[in-house]
Specification:
alpha/beta; 9 strands; 242 residues
């Protein structure tokens, strides 16, 4: 194991928007950064972008929907950098739009699919990292989630039940592990993340929607990490002001 006094953050499902912002924000506080996504196609670019900001990072390819790959990559990160202090799990809100089925038309299989692609992988991540965090009596888990987990959004159809389940899973987990020194929280996001893949696609298609600044979300995540008194932050660019 590499000897280091720095804390380590693993950013799972890293993308050009929020994942990279989280990596930069925590590195500003002295964290070592591990970036994980399904393929390594964009990793060199990510590392170069972070290096331009003075951030050293390592990158790893793993499918976070595969429990064995999750366990293996987290073991590699710990071996390379040291015990993982913080995990940011970001794939939950991404790459699901093509599978939206309106709830009046959704059968059990359609409702189940987002659970299998978003909720269960998040549980797999927790299963992989939580025992060591509990053993140390320290650690943090952040999850990106969607606003449909908090407010009815019929246009998201079969994604909404899974979003709600992930949100309640994280909130319940947060309450269960708090007394053991571990912090868990959800970042509930309503809007397009600037610089993210979905945002770029919408812009290219001429479909502008309200956006959110990933740097501001990452900054909030850092302050949540420090304070550890709130298990959720809501970022809502979609609901009109009252």
């Amino acid at each position: 194991m590499t000897s280091t006094s720095r804390k380590v953050i693993a950013v799972l499902g890293v993308g050009p928007g929020l994942g990279m912002s989280v990596a930069r924000r925590f590195r500003r506080e002295g964290f070592a950064v591990a970036l994980v996504s399904r393929t390594d196609v964009r990793h060199a670019g990510y590392r170069a972008e972070l290096a331009a900001d003075g951030v050293e990072s390592r990158s790893y390819a793993a499918d976070v929907t595969d429990p064995q790959q999750v366990r293996d990559v987290l073991t590699r990160i710990a071996a390379d950098l040291g015990d993982i202090d913080t995990v940011y799990y970001g794939p939950a809100a991404a790459d699901l739009g093509a599978r939206i089925v309106p709830l009046p038309d959704a059968d059990a299989a359609a409702v189940r699919a987002p659970f299998e692609s978003a909720v269960l992988p998040a549980v797999g991540v927790v299963t992989a990292v939580l025992p060591r965090m509990l053993e140390r009596g320290d650690g943090a888990l952040f999850f990106g989630g969607g606003l449909s987990g908090l407010r009815p959004m019929p246009m998201l159809g079969n994604l909404a039940p899974a979003s709600a389940a992930l949100r309640m899973y994280v909130l319940t987990l947060a309450a269960a592990v708090k007394e053991h020194g571990v912090y868990a929280a959800t970042l509930t996001i309503g809007g397009l993340i600037e610089r993210g893949d979905i945002h770029r696609t919408m812009v290219e298609q001429g479909m502008p929607l309200p956006t959110l600044d990933p740097d501001e979300i990452a900054d909030t995540a850092w302050h949540m990490y420090v304070a550890r008194d709130e298990a959720e932050a809501v970022f809502d660019a979609l609901t009109p002001a009252a």
